[in-house]
Design brief:
Elements: H1 3-30, H2 35-39, H3 42-64, H4 67-73, H5 76-89, H6 95-113
Helix pairs in contact: 1-3, 1-5, 4-6, 5-6
Length: 114
C-alpha cells in the first residue's frame, strides 16, 4: 500500500461524505422533492457531482489497492458523515456515535494491518 493509494482513498471518502451532506442540505431546502426540484437545487446537484467524482477516484483506488483493504477502509465515510453533519447540519454527536466511530476506526486499522 502506497501513499498514492491512501490519498486517493481519502479523496473518495471525502467526496462521498461531502456529497451526502450536500444532498441532505439540498433536500431540506427543496421542500417537496420532485425531479424538477432535485435538478434545480444547487446543493443536490453539487452533491451528485461529488458522488461522481468519488466514484471516478474509487476506480483508481481499485487499480492500486487490494479490495480487501480498500473496501473496509471506505467505512471511514460513516465517521466523516457524522462529523460533517455535526458541523454543517447541527446534528448532535452522542456518546453512542462516538463509540460507533471508535469501533469503525479500530476495525479498519485491524484489517489494514492484517
Amino acid at each position: 500500500m502506497d501513499w498514492k493509494g491512501l490519498l486517493m482513498l481519502a479523496g473518495t471518502v471525502a467526496c462521498t461524505a461531502t456529497g451526502q451532506v450536500l444532498m441532505k442540505k439540498g433536500v431540506t431546502l427543496a421542500g417537496t422533492l420532485t425531479l424538477g426540484s432535485a435538478i434545480s437545487t444547487p446543493q443536490i446537484l453539487l452533491g451528485g457531482m461529488c458522488y461522481i467524482l468519488g466514484f471516478i477516484i474509487w476506480l483508481n483506488v481499485l487499480q492500486v489497492m487490494d479490495l480487501s483493504i480498500a473496501y473496509p477502509a471506505s467505512s471511514f465515510v460513516y465517521v466523516l458523515v457524522i462529523l460533517l453533519s455535526a458541523v454543517f447540519l447541527g446534528e448532535p454527536i452522542t456518546l453512542l456515535k462516538i463509540v460507533g466511530m471508535a469501533c469503525i476506526c479500530t476495525g479498519v486499522i485491524f484489517i489494514g494491518f492484517a
